[in-house]
Task: inverse folding
């Protein structure tokens, strides 16, 4: 039996980070839970204090097949390298370099505009392999 799972990312600004990952992954805001007219109604029902209403953001794959993402506000900043990271597999490792690499660089360009930064570009045997990037809060991910 498989288990439904998602990824939770601790952060300082859930709305900002969710906006970045929405752009990066093509995800959408999570729909209001069934039985509720709005997220506000849901928050009130579960007695979440109003001062905490912006302490989280939730994204889902629009096709409903990939893991959900939850962004939770935490007081402490990121202090070390991620032990787990996301790979954006846009290039197609089975594709020739002249097809694969432009896909990678176009995604890198788009994500730079969305607020990411480049950590480094990895080259293997003289050929560009992938780009390590950081989201707006410094969480590393790769574009391959």
Result:
């Amino acid at each position: 039996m498989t288990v439904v799972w998602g990824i939770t990312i601790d952060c300082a600004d859930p709305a900002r980070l969710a906006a970045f990952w929405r752009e990066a992954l093509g995800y959408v805001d999570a729909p209001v839970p069934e039985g509720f007219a709005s997220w506000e109604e849901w928050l009130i029902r579960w007695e979440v204090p109003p001062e905490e209403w912006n302490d989280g953001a939730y994204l889902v794959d629009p096709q409903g097949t990939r893991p959900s993402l939850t962004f939770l506000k935490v007081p402490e900043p990121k202090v070390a390298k991620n032990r787990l990271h996301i790979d954006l597999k846009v290039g197609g490792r089975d594709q020739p370099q002249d097809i694969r690499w432009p896909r990678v660089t176009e995604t890198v360009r788009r994500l730079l505009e969305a607020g990411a930064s480049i950590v480094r570009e990895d080259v293997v045997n003289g050929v560009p392999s992938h780009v390590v990037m950081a989201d707006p809060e410094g969480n590393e991910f790769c574009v391959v």
